[in-house]
Amino acid sequence: MSRRIGCLLAAMLAAQALVVMPAHADDEVCRIDLGRGWPPATENHGSAAETLFAGGLTPTLSLTRLPARSAESGLQLIAGEGEGDWTLRYVEADERIQVWTGGRRELRVQQQPDVASVPMPAALARRVVTDWQRVLDGQVPKDRAAEFHDGEVLLFVVDGVRVSGLQPACGPIVQMMEQATLMIEATDDGDEKRIKRWRKLEESLDQLEQSLAGATG
């Protein structure tokens, strides 16, 4: 099993574990540890990962994972020309980007990351961008700054807006993470299986939109 697939399965298991949490969890359990901008002491590491993973492209949406010890990874949506397909990319560092040697930090950006890239229907990609932006706008107030965390940090950038912090265990962002898992799986599928994956993603977006409508209705 490749390291990329191993990380994918780990992400799937993590998402499943979050989903089974009770809907009536208390405020402490359901705290959303996400804020706007860069968490303290994270920007150099995060910028290095995002720049390496983008490879000169400009993602409209990106989700970058900065684990505490293992290799970094990222999911990206790149807009196509006109009404053409978008590009969905899943990128994983060949070796951990940020390492400490003798008390000094090193950013290993002179490496070739592992990239899986597939076309994605433009309408579906735009739905992901719109829905994720709506969720982040609703869950993370504009005046809440990102805080420092010792563990794995997630970096969301959606249409230029940055939100960073810990993976939530409740709320609509859990559905976003499930959708991220579906998109990562799609980068490893054949054409026929990928079409089925897009249907599952559409269904998940439908459910997300319904839950958002119910919350504001």
From TrEMBL:
Return the protein name: Secreted protein
Signal peptide segment: 1-25
Keyword Signal assigned: yes
Question: What top-level branch of life does the organism fall under?
Answer: Bacteria
Kindly state which keywords UniProt assigns to this record, in alphabetical order: Signal
